[in-house]
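Example 318.
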Amino acid sequence: MSTVELNPPDLATLQARAAQRAADRAGGADRLRGHLVCDGLVRIYKTEGVEVVALQGLDLVVDRGELLAIVGASGSGKSTLLNILSGLDVPTAGIARVGDYDLLTMSARRRLKYRRHMVGFVWQQTGRNLLPYLTAQENVAIPMRLAGTRSGRAARRRARELLDMVGVGYCAGRRPDQMSGGEQQRCAVALAVANDPEVLFADEPTGELDESTATEVFGALRTINAELGVTVVVVTHDHNVSGQVRRTVAMRDGRLATEVRRTARQTLDGGTELVAEEYAVLDRSGRMQLPAPFVEALELKDRVKLNLEPDHVEVRRG
Ligand SMILES: Nc1ncnc2c1ncn2[C@@H]1O[C@H](COP(=O)(O)OP(=O)(O)OP(=O)(O)O)[C@@H](O)[C@H]1O
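Predicted structure in complex with adenosine-5'-triphosphate:
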């Protein structure tokens, strides 16, 4: 027998309910809200008949304006993910969305627009970011001229503003070979945001730099994130560098394995301190990866026993 609601809900309630349903279908409201959304992302490379599964159903949501670091051992799939998110590569299956752009289905024309206006990049090799025969200011002005967003004096003025913002205004008239590695990378950060992208991707931007210079480059990324509200995703090997952001996700075997969140907490003497908490990542199907030290400490292998307790799940040797 069907039941009829005595007071039918108003339109707003219905709309909210529909949104909730859609969110439930997508695995939770966050999955629809995120600026960058990857859901069950798969990338398989085929070379000479051999298949390599570089991404194995990766789920990731990055909020608008977030500064996120992605860490992981060599071969865990970091570059594969970044190549997909930056529009250079196309995933084999799953969902990858940045703002209104569907990275699986977008046309070649839309892909070009995406790469020119929606996202900016900083690569590890300083030589890949800047043209060697132009000054820092000319380099930063180039994307504006190419995309037609600003020309002549306006482009030069904006280039100078951006160089000042990342602390290398004094390099405006220098060519890359007259700048240090750190100065070149900070200039590359300014260039990457010249056309006001919504998202900035950086692939090992500090990989070729020493620790103190790396901190300066990270400072530039943080400034751009805070001043321009650009969502920033940085891939790095360097765990020290990842300690300078609020959220770090670690990849293992083509999936997210753990996540560290840092939150500010009041201390007893009235100051504030950053507290880091590590979480295992649970995917939509309920899968998670036990940290290797836990597995080793209890010599877990093949199968384990799970017990549901009122407020936790127990994992015991099988
Ligand atoms: N073009 C390709 N063809 C075949 N296999 C590839 C290709 N690119 C990456 N792979 C493989 O996919 C897996 C993930 O590689 P990826 O470069 O994304 O890892 P990574 O975490 O970025 O590593 P690194 O830190 O060394 O750059 C590896 O097993 C790699 O060998």
